[in-house]
Specification:
- This protein is an alpha/beta fold.
- The protein has one domain: Alpha-Beta Barrel (TIM Barrel).
- An eight-stranded parallel β-barrel has the order 1-2-3-4-5-6-7-8, surrounded by seven helices.
- Helix 8 links the parallel strand 7 and strand 8.
- Helix 1 packs parallel to helix 2, helix 3 runs parallel beside helix 4 and helix 7 packs parallel to helix 8.
- The radius of gyration is 17 Å and the shape is globular.
- The termini are close together.
């Protein structure tokens, strides 16, 4: 298993001139890879970050979310569904340009939008059709898509890994799997570690995110049993820290309800989180 660091801890719009130093920091701490929020990244920054990461021997993955006013696969508005296809195509191109082959996110629906009812059969078909078109196009770029279920307060389409796995099986595309995020699983799964084991082999990416979205290992969202179950199941992908600090991700604050800052600084979260994951892998 490899350890990654998501740049959401510092920014939702990575710019090379402003954030180049973060790549040096992530490399010095010992991470194997960097996860880039690609939605608003410029072509120039992507090219420079790719060169920088190559020079430091760092892998890349990509992440994005659907702003519901712009794109939404589960919307009754066909225009928003079609916009979701175009967005994944654009983000897949950026992912490939970064030198990455994995794009992840909660692509089932627009973040934080609710219909007021459980998902119905028509909505399920809308999302299947939309993501089949989008993900098949990503496959032509050599990009895998990891679909992420969120907790019930951020998403109504799917909330558990089991339901998301059922969706992926129905979708039937070889380049599509699951992203499991421990913060969401901590809310929705009855047995977090077992749910990850049962999500294999569709589980292709993991976000290590604490119950507070702060420092991994400081709360109850990342049980030690998770690392044992992943090893027992033969998981060899990334364990990528997704944490948030202060107002560094303004586009996501309302939907994620990030109203208070963690006790640790962003650098402390990265350093302590890395050591927690490293020690946890070593112990199993």
């Amino acid at each position: 298993m490899k350890i990654g660091m998501n740049l959401f801890l510092w920014t939702d719009v990575p710019e090379y001139a402003k954030h180049e130093n973060l790549i040096d920091l992530i490399g010095k701490i010992g991470f194997n890879g960097v996860e880039f929020p690609v939605e608003s990244m410029s072509v120039d920054s992507i090219a420079k970050f790719a060169i920088k990461c190559d020079r430091l021997g760092l892998d890349r993955t990509a992440v994005a979310v659907f702003q519901p006013s712009k794109y939404d696969p589960v919307s009754p508005n066909k225009t928003l569904r079609q916009a979701a296809v175009r967005a994944i195509d654009e983000w897949s191109a950026k992912t490939a340009d970064l030198g990455a082959d994995l794009l992840s996110g909660p692509f089932f629906q627009g973040l934080g939008r609710f219909s007021g009812s459980p998902v119905n059969a028509e909505e399920w078909k809308w999302v299947l059709d939309t993501l089949h078109e989008a993900c098949a196009a990503a496959d032509k770029r050599g990009v895998r898509i990891a679909l992420e279920p969120l907790n019930r307060f951020e998403m109504y389409f799917v909330n558990t890994l089991a339901d998301a796995k059922r969706f992926v099986k129905e979708l039937g595309l070889f380049n599509v799997g699951l992203l499991g995020d421990t913060m969401h699983s901590n809310i929705e799964e009855l047995d977090l570690a077992q749910s990850y084991y049962e999500a294999l082999p569709e589980l292709i990416h993991v976000h290590i995110s604490e119950s507070t979205r702060g420092t991994p290992g400081s709360g109850h969202g990342v049980p030690q049993a998770l690392f044992r179950k992943l090893k027992d199941g033969g998981y060899d992908g990334y364990l990528t820290i997704e944490a948030f600090s202060g107002g560094t991700t303004p586009s996501m604050i309302p939907a994620l309800c990030l109203w208070r800052n963690p006790a640790d600084s962003a650098e402390e979260i990265a350093r302590k989180g890395y050591q927690f994951i490293f020690n946890s892998i070593k112990a199993v």
